[in-house]
Amino acid sequence: MKLSEYARQKGVTYRTAQNHWYKGLLKGEQLATGTIVIFEEDCFAVKNKNLQVATYARVSSTQNKDNLDKQQSRLIDYANAKGYQTAFNIKEVGSGLNDTRPKLLELLSNKNIDIILVEHKDRLTRFGFKYIETLMDIQGRKIEVINNLDDDKDDLIQDFISIITSFCARIYGQRRSKRNTEKLIKELNVKGN
């Protein structure tokens, strides 16, 4: 089977399938014409044991630390059931709106990791999930979401809640910033007199 057909049947881009080929995750041969042919026994199974897999669990506040441990336990159980051996199991406390979470940034920048497992999309990020997924796909890597919402209505409600949360955070952040600026000006005026 041609690599393009393999990619179509697996539901991945040709580039991802090509990266799997170059990493040696697929058995096949490359013809003199450059066409890559995958052997039938590998058409539906990438060798999981060679993949570098990481789990990423996140909660918004330290009050939910119990949920963080349970979330990571579910991710590890899922990985084991899929035959993955996890190289990294990352837990982080921070807002899904925060784009400077150090552990997530380190995980995303580690190009040795082939798959990042998350329980829900919003555990990775509240916004821009598709952008991250696309960039990882270009690199021949992927994000595997265990619990995708099946209902568009539920997805729409989640997006609406995320937008409201984002704007609230920005408003409160601006108020805090304004208070800090006013305090700084007041201190400068006192020192200047």
Quick synopsis:
The chain is an alpha/beta fold and about 190 residues long.
Give an overview in words.
- The protein is α/β, with parallel strands linked by helices.
- It has 3 domains: 3-42, no CATH class; 48-145, Resolvase, N-terminal catalytic domain (Rossmann fold), CATH 3.40.50; 151-193.
- It is 51% helix and 15% strand.
- It is built from 7 helices and 6 strands, in the order ααβββαβαβααβα.
- The chain has helices at 3-10, 14-22, 65-82, 102-109, 121-124, 129-138, 152-192, and strands at 28-30, 36-38, 53-59, 86-93, 115-118, 142-145.
- The strands form 2 sheets. It has a 4-stranded parallel sheet with strand order 4-3-5-6, sandwiched between helices. Strands 1-2 form a two-stranded antiparallel ribbon.
- α1 crosses α2 (14-22).
- The longest helix is centred in the last third of the chain and has 41 residues, at 152-192.
- The chain is elongated and about 80 Å long.
- 18% of the residues are buried.
- The model is unreliable at 42-47 (pLDDT under 50).
